Amino acid sequence: MNRKIHLLVIRDIMARRFQFGALAIIIALGIAIFVSMTVAFTNAERSYDRTYEATHFADFSVEVAQAPESAVDEVRELANVKAVEGRVVMDTGLPVDENRLVQARLIGLPADRRAAVNDVIVESGRYFEVDERAVVLPLGKFADFHGYESGDTLQVYTLEGLKPLTIVGTVSSPEYLLMAESKQDLLPSPRRFGVFFVPNAYLQELFGMQGQVNEVNVLVESESEREDTIAAVTGLLEPYGVQQTVRQEDQPSKATTELDLESGREFAVLLPTLVLVIAAFAIYIAMSRLVRAQRTLIGLFRGVGYGKGSIVVHYLLFAVVVGVVGGSVGAAAGYGLGYLLTGLYADALAIPLIAHEFQLMPIVISVIVSLAVALVAAAAPAWAASRMLPAPAMRPSPEVALAKGSVPFVERIFGLGRRPPLLVRLGVRNIWRAPMRSLYTVGAIALAAILLVVGLSSFDSMDFIMDRQFEKTDRWDVAAAFWSPQDDQTLAEINGLTGVREAERLYLTPAELRVDSKRTNIELMAVEEDTRLHGFDLGGGKTTGEALGEGGIILTLGVADQLDVGVGDSLDIATEVGISSLVVSGVSREFTGGLGYVSLATKDELGLGDGFNAVWLETTSPSADAEVQAALYRLPGIQGVQVKEDIRDDWREQMALFNVMAGVIVAFCMVMAGAIVFNTMTVNVLERERETATMRTLGAGRPSVVLMLATEGLTFSLLAILPGLALGTIAASYLIHTWSSEFFTMWFHMRTTTYAMIAVVIIVAALVSTIPSIWHSNRMNLAEATKVLA
Amino acid sequence: MSDETRTAGEKGRSEAAGPLLLEMRGVSKIYETGQVQVRALDGVSLALQGGELVVALGPSGSGKTTLLNLVGGLDRPTAGTIRYGDTDIASLSDGDLGRFRRDHIGFVFQFFNLIPTLTARENVEFAAELVSHDSRQMEERVEELLRLVGLEERADHFPSQLSGGEQQRVAIARAMAKDPNILLCDEPTGNLDFRTGQQILGLLQKLTGEQGKTCVLVTHNTAIAGVGTRIVRLRDGRVQSDERSANPLPASEVEW
Ligand SMILES: Nc1ncnc2c1ncn2[C@@H]1O[C@H](COP(=O)(O)OP(=O)(O)O)[C@@H](O)[C@H]1O
Ligand SMILES: [Mg+2]
């Protein structure tokens, strides 16, 4: 290692600093993505965990119709129960202005002490004081959105009409880190839904439940015995009407954030892997060129007595430098970026306790991985160098040895009749002269195309899915839900409202589906058999009328996949009135998971309540939506009204953030594609310096040289585009498919124009990246370059 | 353009000089490398005439290559003028220099510099295409040149399949393809064994003697000097002597 020749490594690298710089950048990009995402997600995960711990997040909750507080005390005595809290949870309405009602979830908390399970974190103001009554702690997110502060008074609907509650502070809750009303609520928005903590005793009073609770939250001693405990607790509470048991991992906020983290972590490995594969290609290409360029020097080294081992070590040292520089720059940048991302993520989700802890592991992994990638890539060129004969300096021209000189097979086929012009022939043969390198080059450009497809298809797919959801699936304009079932008189009243063209009845209720050992919670929607306001996509075969008419259940794709059932299978359905069996009569391709559809008649057969508790409305025009919404709010018993366009706007807002991220990915892909093409074209042109100089010396003008090099860059990109787009499509479909979950189903979709755009981007990137080479060729000192040996 | 020179040259090589073709006056070239200035050429005046085979002789570093580069329009002098016909090539733009090279100069390099991906014929065609737009005429010329250098049999071979001497012959055919008035050869035999070198020198004698081309051949090898019709000795960037030789040696009698 202390041999003099190794000092040359730094000098050689400095002499080719742009090229080695480009290589280090590609490695750094890959490492930076890995480190930043890993750091951010680990930070987020730890923040969640801290929050869960600090607030004693329940291991499971049991919802009951109504149970006496004494039952909660009995639960406390059960084995493996560490702590338990009984509370009232009530969904009601809260007017935020004259025409708008948000759905308010009121949750009881003890006023004389802090809850032992599912406590809150006070963000501003203070917690309740002993014996306080008409006070409220809204979630910070809700208060911020509507501009509420401590001291403001809110009105909520109770059994005795509107009642005032005074805000004493704002909080965050482990159950509502993501303020989702339910698992089906994919787009939680404080516009429609808010969570409010109220002294439990006062809440009991407001809803006539003195001494009673309807939810029991439990913390267990031993995680592994939780199922037994659940059985014991539900057994104990059975007499009080157990409606649902929600395990921590199924809890909407927890499940969604967990899923987020999971797909994030997958991405944090997959993307860097792709980038590092590309880096390896680029390093291999550059190192092969270096070894060829230095054959004389290698001959000299061997001549003066350096052994093969020294030569191998010498060339591996280049890789070590590139790996260490790229790896450490990437790790440092990634670490900084990771903190930034953690902050953004924490902001976006309002994680209360942000954990910024030093993480050694991502750095260690980065260093090892970047070194390994560089070493593996340089191994073959270094080995080839060590096997060179000691006296290649005798060879006048390395190019002659390089180019075997044969008429390529393609040319023989296509050049049969009229021979193509010399410059075109040259371009084609230049690609043929180093077939392996050309293959790598095409491969590298293709990988850039793949990354672009993956990056851009996320835009297109989201657009496509939104379009599908809002145009094809949800065909209603306004939807409304009632607290309790309504009769046909209400329907007539709704139909009579100005601006309403047609109303369809609906019945919504939570249900649990069970097949063998698999189970999932869904929202069961009973709809009109001939519904026009919801578009099913059953994939041919049965019509919606047939599927609903025969008394079966239509599942959304996400649910069917999760339960692993198909049309014709039967399943058990547990609702508030008991367990029945249904046959799956259809699987609908819809974005939203967690839904099942039956006809209103089937609903009656299941024994669920009479009439309907929700409606879908078609309005006469979009401008009538607001008026219809206001009119609906004035109906008695209304729980909430949604305007589709508002939801769509929420989506667009959410997508704006998503678009920024996708935009970053695309920009990054382009930088990388540029670096790759730059590296390859630089190598190609450097290698042929003498040849190009000779052409210019003979009097070939700059335009001919530009034409030849541009033809080459263009040919590479043209060869790469088709396979790149094809493989990119496969990779993107796979990735998008993996994002699908029980909550939603995603489809790959990409516009033809996007494909075309990627092709153009690749071609432009290839041509732009040849500019430095063309520039170099045009500025070459011809007198010198025609004589260079290497 | 070359009709005049050709007729002049065809009168025979013993006849000392054809018409004036190119004239260097007080040409100096100074290279600046960092702090150091290298005076590669120092006030050189030299006139080239049609049909001459000028051997520029000098030790390594004496400025031979620099001289060729200036005559060939690869570089510009620091001082002095280089007239070719009515133009001072020292004052031409890059583009015009390129055209000057294309139209009037043929280069033969020590390391041949053939384009490895083109066959012998295509290498010659590459140069021919630069000046000719009539493809039939061009093809005929290429065949003729390959015959001239004795390579018609190996025309479809790639450089890697040719020996050094064969490669240099292709290079000469390539230089001739544009029918230039001036042929510049920098150590054309420097990389060849002596028998092959003889062939190359013979070829250059033939081109100057029979076709009236002017050839400047640069070498550090004194033995070669005899083949020239004129011998210019360079030392430290200056012309030390400039002699015409009434009876150049035939290439076959040169030995080294
Ligand atoms: N591009 C250059 N930069 C600096 N010095 C140069 C350059 N080219 C040639 N020289 C110097 O000019 C002198 C003449 O060089 P050259 O014409 O190549 O000599 P010859 O061909 O006779 O060996 C030498 O001292 C050489 O080092
Ligand atoms: Mg020289």
Top keywords for this entry?
heterodimer; A: 790 residues; alpha+beta; six-stranded mixed β-barrel; 21 strands; elongated; B: 256 residues; alpha/beta; Rossmann fold; six-stranded mixed beta sheet; four-stranded antiparallel beta sheet; 7 helices; 33% helix; disordered N terminus; binds adenosine-5'-diphosphate; binds magnesium ion
What does the model show?
The complex is a heterodimer of chains A (790) and B (256). Chain A folds into four domains: 1-57 and 251-395, no CATH class; 58-241, no CATH class; 402-473 and 651-790, no CATH class; 474-650, no CATH class. Helix content of chain A is 54%, strand content 20%. Chain A contains 24 helices and 21 strands. In chain A, the strands form four sheets. Chain A has a six-stranded mixed sheet. Chain A has a six-stranded mixed barrel with strand order 14-15-19-16-18-17. In chain A, strands 2-11-1-12 form a four-stranded antiparallel sheet, with helices on one face. Residues 392-402 of chain A have low confidence and may be disordered. Chain B has 256 residues and is an alpha/beta fold. Helix content of chain B is 33%, strand content 27%. Chain B is built from seven helices and ten strands. In chain B, the strands form two sheets. In chain B, strands 6-7-8-3-9-10 form a six-stranded mixed sheet, with helices on both faces. Chain B is globular and about 50 Å long. The A-B interface holds A 396-397, 399-407, 422, 425-426, 429-430, 432-433, 690-691, 694-702, 782-783, 786-787, 789 and B 65, 69, 72, 74-75, 95, 98-99, 101-103, 105, 107, 109-119, 122, 125-127, 129-131, 157-161, 164, 174, 178, 186, 191.
List the helices and strands and how they pair.
The complex is a heterodimer of chains A (790) and B (256).
Chain A: H1 7-15, H2 17-54, E1 60-68, H3 69-77, E2 81-87, E3 89-97, E4 100-109, E5 121-125, E6 135-138, H4 140-146, E7 153-158, E8 161-167, E9 169-172, E10 193-199, H5 200-206, E11 212-220, H6 226-237, E12 242-247, H7 252-293, H8 295-303, H9 308-349, H10 361-386, H11 398-402, H12 409-414, H13 422-433, H14 435-473, E13 478-486, H15 488-495, E14 500-515, E15 518-527, H16 544-549, E16 553-556, H17 557-563, E17 570-575, E18 578-588, E19 595-599, H18 600-606, E20 612-619, H19 625-633, E21 638-643, H20 644-687, H21 689-698, H22 702-739, H23 752-779, H24 782-785
Helix pairs in contact in A: 2-7, 2-9, 2-10, 2-20, 7-10, 7-14, 7-20, 9-10, 13-22, 14-20, 14-22, 14-23, 20-23, 22-23
Chain B: H1 3-10, E1 20-33, E2 36-49, E3 53-57, H2 64-71, E4 79-84, E5 87-88, H3 94-104, E6 105-108, H4 120-131, H5 135-148, H6 164-177, E7 182-186, H7 194-211, E8 214-219, E9 230-235, E10 238-244
Parallel strand pairs in B: 3-8, 3-9, 6-7, 7-8
Antiparallel strand pairs in B: 1-2, 1-4, 4-5, 9-10
The complex binds adenosine-5'-diphosphate and magnesium ion.
